[in-house]
Amino acid sequence: MKFKPQDSTLGRRFFRLSLLVAAFLIVVISLIQVFISYQEKLHSVQETFTDIRNTEVKGISTALWNFSLPELEALTDGIANHPLITYVEIRETSQNVLYSAGREKLTQNVIEDAIPLVYESNGVKTSIGTLLMQVDRSKIWETLWDDIVEVLIFRIVTILVMIFLFVFLIDHQITRYLHYVSEILQNYDLSHLEIPLKIDKPDNNDEIDQLVHAFNDMRQRVLFANRQQNESERKFATLLGNLPGMAYRCKYDLNWTMEVVSAGCYSLTGYQPDDLIENNVISYSQIIYFEDRDMVWNSIHSQIANSQSFEISYRIVTKSGSMRWVWERGSVIYSEDHSISAIEGFISDITEKKQQERELEAIASMSYAIRSAETSKATLTIIMEQTTSLLSTDGCMIELIEPETGGSVIQVANGIYVNAVGSHIPEGKGLNTYIRETLKPYLNNDAIDDPRVYLTEIIKKSPAVCGAPLIAQDELIGFLWIGRTDEISNRVVSVLTAIADIAANAIHRIRLFQQTEKI
């Protein structure tokens, strides 16, 4: 990249500082010069006073003794014409002013000298008066002004020339290269670290060259570290992407605020990883089923108090509204001050396993309860209640076919179907028509749109409807129905079919028992 001279912030700053320094030096040097010149003027005034004392006083004393006024005036005017002296007066011993010359007498801001006038005759000295001379200090400053201006201009020109030369040399040798390097670094494309930094300058191994070398060394280290990090991240992402669950890192707070979430989050919860990170859309605590939230917090808190890791199973609600069972294993990350900085772990879906366990337990419990039932009504009630509990339905009902009419009657019902008990459904009417024709389960998650609906008001309360045939000894004897406000899965259909088989056999057994008693 070719060097192009450009405006340099550092150069401008250096130039401004140089001007400030120059101004300061000019002022200081000028003040010193003025002070020296003023002192020289004061010294000149004192020398003038001394010269007059040595040369003029004797003549003035003689003229005053002889009372020769013309001579006295001539001598006085001669002194008053001196460039520095502004006022002269001669006084008698009685302090009467005999003669004065120059401007008016000053009382302040003045330098003056009073010389006694003494006449000596035959070795006898007689005091006959006083010679008073004044110098106006302002006049001294007036005489200094021209010198001050001359000195000031000379100093300014001299220092400015030196500064411009110095700044030029600094810019030519240092600041332009610094500006050039700064511009390259600011515009350096970090995605192309393989391109070294070069400047159009002979390599003299000076500080600028060392700066370039240091950057290129750092660039190589960063490039190597980035390659290693990218490879590690690729392996880690591949590993997490293939795991059947969600790996995470979260804060230890009531929201379980996620900091890192793997891609498996979507398949587990229905939310994208970014939705959970820093609670952007929803916190993980809100995904946990509300009845399990306190249990999850208390259990994890209790476990990590005694160990660094924990295991727990609980329920979550996905974005679609369905409920899932999950198993979580995690460990605590401690900071340097031994406080909990984060929790890292893995969450997997165990819904199917939990459902299978519940189904087996429920079916076994249902079989035992049915065997203990003594009446058909009790049997139907047990089947209904167990089905409701096992499948978490909003309503359940058992509909049995009347052999005499071919129609069917709802024998027992609960939940949203409770008002349907005793309702008669003619043959060829209602949703059971599909089951009669196919002997297969019926499933519709929007059953209200099915034209075969007979009990419309009931179906409106639970759009998702599933029914299974009750078949005993190859004969269709009725139907087992469940309803939900949320979607019914195929897994539920399979479980309902299994319950229907057990229920049909139990109903058939009760009927046979009742027929035997009549005989």
UniProtKB/TrEMBL annotation:
All copies of the HAMP domain together span: 172-227
Which PROSITE patterns does this chain map to?
A: HAMP, PAC, PAS
Domain PAC residues, every copy: 310-362
One GO MF annotation is: protein histidine kinase activity
Q: Which SUPFAM superfamilies match?
A: GAF domain-like, PYP-like sensor domain (PAS domain)
Ranges annotated as spanning the membrane: 14-36, 152-170
Q: InterPro entries from the xrefs?
A: GAF, GAF-like_dom_sf, HAMP_dom, PAC, PAS, PAS-assoc_C, PAS-like_dom_sf, PAS_fold_3
Q: What is this enzyme's class at the first EC digit? A: transferase
Q: At the top level of its lineage, which domain of life is listed?
A: Bacteria
Which residues belong to any copy of the PAS domain? 232-307
Q: Which keywords appear in this protein's UniProt record, sorted alphabetically?
A: Kinase, Membrane, Phosphoprotein, Transferase, Transmembrane, Transmembrane helix
Its GO biological process terms? signal transduction
Catalysed transformations (reactions): ATP + protein L-histidine = ADP + protein N-phospho-L-histidine
Q: GO CC terms on record?
A: membrane
Enzyme Commission (EC) number? 2.7.13.3
Name of the protein described by the UniProt record: histidine kinase
Species per Swiss-Prot/TrEMBL record: Leptolinea tardivitalis
